Amino acid sequence: MGNDVQELIDMLYNMITDAWGLPLGAEKCVIERDKVLDLLDEIKAQLPTELAEAKRLVSSRTEYVNNAKREAESMRKVAEQRARQLVDQEEVVRAAKIRANEIISTAEAKANELKRVANDYADDALRRTEEAISEALNEVRGSRSRFKTVSAAAMPQRETRESASQTDIEL
After folding, report:
1. Which candidate, 37, 26, 30, 3, places its Cα nearest to that of 16?
2. Which H or E run contains 25?
3. Phi, psi torsion values for 21, nearest 5 degrees
4. 25 has which bridge partners?
5. Coil, strand, or helix at residue 27?
6. CA–CA separation, 36 vs 12, rounded Å?
7. pLDDT tens-digit profile of 76-106?
8. Smallest Cα–Cα separation from 1: which of 48, 51, 35?
9. Alpha helices of the chain — where are they, by DSSP H?
10. pTM > 0.85: yes or no
11. DSSP element (H, E) containing 20
């Protein structure tokens, strides 16, 4: 018989269900001993193969589940590592932005300080130039005033000399 164990058990079950009941024994019946023994022998013969197949299936299932768990764990680790990298990268970017802002602030402060110093220097240079020009102007004015004084004092002498010369000529 090429039946599998489940079919053999079904056949045995049907045989017992269809068996004649004994008078005065409600739960007892008459079955053909040889047929039942043949079915049980065939079940016994096929049971190791069925059990081996079941064990192989259970083992295969267990291996599949373990592989899936390992793969899931590996994927989880990779995802965690990637997440850490992204967080670290984000941390680096954030730190770089903070540092860039600090550098920009420092540069702006230094630029403002340089502008202030340059303005102070230019203002001082212009003030000194103005003072020098003012002193030169005062010197020119003083020289001019002295020139006018000397020129005015020399003018009457010349006129006197000229008058005397004319008087000498007239005489």
Report:
1. 30
2. strand 25-30
3. -80, 150
4. 22
5. strand
6. 7
7. 999 999 888 888 888 888 889 999 999 999 9
8. 35
9. 5-18, 33-170
10. no
11. strand 20-22
